[in-house]
Amino acid sequence: MFDDFDEPQLDRAVWLPHYLPAWSSLAETRANYLIHDSRLELSIPPDQGLWCAEEHQPPLRVSGLQTGNFSGPAGSTIGQQPFREGLRVREAQEEFRGCLVERGTVGMRASLYLGPRSMASLWLVGFEDEPERSGELCVMEVFGRDVEEDAALVGMGFHAFRDPRLAEDFERVRLPIDVTEPHAYEARWDGDEASFRVDGRVVRLLDAPPQYPLQLMLAVFDFPDWPDERSGGSAFVPTLSVDRVWAN
């Protein structure tokens, strides 16, 4: 898969413009996004509501896309990336397999416009048709509070979740980059090793990556309760501006 967003519409054969809708609904998890000038812009305008307002703590707003979607029936606990024990499906989801990657290369070239209470990320998670296939391979994650004028902490690595074979190994690496400028963030993995790269340079090497199909997750987040003395608070619009995404 290679998407440079040259077409005026989102490729719905690949992308679902919602964030984990099983725990809420398709209607309440729709992403705010635009495609123009060959760029995808995911954003969170001031009037966007909370995601899973009655369930998720701390309060969270999100605009995200994903390349897979799966759940059990409403009322079941079968779903992707549950955020607490016993969470139940509110709206059963039609199975969607837009792009699943078992091994290979996944990356994006993007600019990040973040305030102290926002975050942007590209990560991969198991499709979770079996609960143990739930591990995460995070290509990149940046919090606005970790951004300086000429450097940023970029998170990357593994989260085990319910995968007993995957070791938790996540680190925020300080890199001398301006995240508002376009940079390439990429992960490559096979059966033995995963490498994490920024602008082609290897930043981290980890052993024993997940060994099952993973779907892409791409999103920008806002945490309304977090302090923000720098960007104008609720008037600021966090934005993830993406030139291209690739998976092969």
Characterise the protein shown here.
The protein starts with a strand and ends with a strand. It has one domain (2-247): Jelly Rolls. The protein contains no helices and 17 strands. It has 248 residues and is mainly beta. Strands 1, 2, 3, 8, 13, 14, 15 and 17 form an eight-stranded antiparallel beta sheet that branches. Strands 4, 7, 9, 10, 11, 12 and 16 form a seven-stranded antiparallel beta sheet that branches. The protein is globular, with a radius of gyration of 17 Å.
Distance between the termini: 6 Å
Count all strands and give the number: 17
Instruction: Report strand %.
Output: 35-45%
Q: Share of helix among residues?
A: under 10%
Element string (H = helix, E = strand): EEEEEEEEEEEEEEEEE
Globally, the shape reads globular
Q: Could you say what the CATH topology is called?
A: Jelly Rolls
Domain GH16: 37-248
GO molecular function: hydrolase activity, hydrolyzing O-glycosyl compounds
InterPro entries: Beta-glucanase-like, ConA-like_dom_sf
Protein name: GH16 domain-containing protein
Search tags:
248 residues, Jelly Rolls, 8-stranded antiparallel sheet, 7-stranded antiparallel sheet, 0% helix, globular, ConA-like_dom_sf, hydrolase activity, hydrolyzing O-glycosyl compounds, GH16 domain-containing protein, Beta-glucanase-like
Give the helices and strands, then pairings.
Blueprint: E1 2-3, E2 32-36, E3 39-43, E4 61-66, E5 68-69, E6 96-97, E7 100-101, E8 104-113, E9 118-126, E10 136-143, E11 152-159, E12 169-175, E13 183-189, E14 193-198, E15 201-207, E16 214-222, E17 239-247
InterPro entries: Beta-glucanase-like, ConA-like_dom_sf
Protein name: GH16 domain-containing protein
Domain GH16: 37-248
